[in-house]
Design brief:
Function: Catalyzes the reversible oxidative deamination of glutamate to alpha-ketoglutarate and ammonia.
Strand order of the largest sheet: 10-9-8-11-12-13
CATH superfamily of the largest domain: NAD(P)-binding Rossmann-like Domain
Bound molecules: nicotinamide-adenine-dinucleotide
Shape: globular
Protein name: Leucine dehydrogenase
CATH class of the largest domain: Alpha Beta
Largest sheet: 6 strands, parallel
Order of helices and strands: EEEHEHHEHEEHEHEHEEHEHEHHHH
Radius of gyration: 20 Å
CATH topology of the largest domain: Rossmann fold
Number of helices: 13
InterPro entries: Aminoacid_DH-like_N_sf, Glu/Leu/Phe/Val/Trp_DH, Glu/Leu/Phe/Val/Trp_DH_C, Glu/Leu/Phe/Val/Trp_DH_dimer, Glu/Leu/Phe/Val_DH_AS, Glu/Phe/Leu/Val/Trp_DH_bac/arc, NAD(P)-bd_dom_sf
Distance between the termini: 40 Å
GO molecular function: nucleotide binding; oxidoreductase activity, acting on the CH-NH2 group of donors, NAD or NADP as acceptor
Keywords: NAD, Nucleotide-binding, Oxidoreductase
């Protein structure tokens, strides 16, 4: 199949295949759209079974970034990169330096950040050969306090607010007390969300491949631990996918009996058709790229060199209002929330509506 006919192609502006035999780098850098600003999205490192799998992943993710930033009214376009390889054994400073040199050649139409398989320290190494990378600066707040470049706390905060919005709309409640949330994945985002949910009085049912983190959640948050496949069968009000993509699909929907699906994972639905199934079944779905935009909002302020946590939090709090607008319109116009989100994001993209101005710093 030709690239232009790829089912996920969606008019990408540019797709770069890069290879550096000396360091073993093999990567794809996808630039979906730069209408609102330079494309920004994380660098995922994963041992993809095939080049086709890597291409499909990067195309879906970079398009998602265009929609995510447009929806959050950020002056950024959508892009993403994938490095094909095992981050545990193949990630070396030489490989990250080679990757940085390719980013430099692209001249800033794509800006990288950390993602699955890469970290803040990795982005610091990439920065040694390019300035087109973000998400690693120590952020200095207006009161002089600093925090790391990790966007996960901001993502978790946005997701927590998104769950509150879904509960308000679907269950007509202003609090989470006594509601059960099934959490799939307790990583950088998931664990922080779990803490906020527990503090708000929610009961947690959790699963993860990492047994250490499960023990911690049991002891610290009073969570009930279940097996990886058991999570779908639990009696719960909210299912929060915070690990992998495509875990909401016709097979898991046969088991899931929930009112709300709202979590941090990217590409939660296996296909657009699943979004329609959710709507038919009356399940309130918080579209993934809307609810998980806290991280890109945080990184955007970092990239603009205008970090101020009050402003960042105020922007993240907009996620609640955007989701309420989607839920209400979805009910009123009888359109699946997932389809409606795409329509609103395309409208915002076409109008070029952003609340910040892009001004590159270092
Ligand atoms: P992470 O790697 O820190 O956490 C993922 C967790 O999922 C880990 O604890 C891992 O052990 C667990 N996991 C892996 N396979 C699993 C399985 N089969 N079942 C259950 N758990 C499993 O990643 P993260 O930064 O917390 O991100 C979580 C999700 O949110 C990802 O899909 C990511 O793309 C998305 N996301 C993250 C951010 C961010 O700021 N970090 C922003 C937007 C979206």
């Amino acid at each position: 199949m030709s690239l232009f006919d790829h089912v996920e192609f969606d008019n990408h502006e540019q797709i770069n295949y890069v290879c550096d035999p000396e360091s073993g780098l093999k990567a794809i850098i996808a630039v979906h759209n730069t209408h609102l600003g330079p494309s920004l999205g994380g660098t995922r490192m994963y041992p993809y079974a095939s080049e086709d799998d890597a291409l499909t992943d990067v195309l879906r993710l970079s398009r998602g970034m265009t929609y995510k930033s447009a929806m959050a009214r950020l002056p950024l376009g959508g892009g993403k990169s994938v490095i094909i390889g095992d981050p545990k054994t193949q990630k070396t400073p030489e490989l990250l330096h080679a990757f940085g040199r390719y980013l430099e050649r692209l001249g800033g139409i794509y800006i990288a950040a950390e993602d699955s398989g890469t970290s803040v320290p990795d982005m610091k190494i990439v920065h040694e050969t390019t300035s087109y990378v973000t998400g690693y600066h120590e952020k200095v707040d207006k009161d002089g306090t600093t925090k790391s470049g990790d966007p996960s706390p901001a993502t978790a905060y946005g997701c927590f607010l998104g769950i509150q919005a879904a509960v308000k709309h679907q269950l007509k409640r202003d609090d989470l007390s006594g509601l059960t949330v099934g959490m799939q994945g307790l990583g950088n985002v998931g664990y922080r969300m779990a803490k906020m949910l527990a503090q708000a009085g929610a009961k947690l049912v959790v699963t993860d491949v990492n047994t250490e983190v499960l023990k911690q959640a049991e002891q610290e948050l009073g969570a009930t631990v279940v097996g990886l496949d058991e999570i779908y069968r639990q009696k719960m009000d909210i299912f929060a996918p915070c690990a992998l993509g495509a875990t909401v699909n016709p097979a898991t929907l046969k088991e899931l009996d929930v009112s709300i699906i709202a979590g941090s994972a990217n590409n939660q639905l296996d296909t657009a058709e699943t979004g329609r199934l959710l709507h038919e079944r009356g399940i309130c779905y918080a579209p993934d790229y809307v609810i998980n935009a806290g991280g890109i909002i945080d990184v955007c302020f970092e990239t603009l060199g205008a970090y101020d946590s009050d402003k960042v939090n105020a922007h993240i709090e907009g996620i609640h209002d955007t989701l309420m607008e989607i839920f209400e319109r979805s009910a009123r116009e009888n359109i699946p929330a997932s389809d409606l989100a795409d329509t609103i994001a395309r409208e915002r993209l076409a109008k070029g509506e952003t609340t910040l101005e892009y001004r590159r710093t270092a």
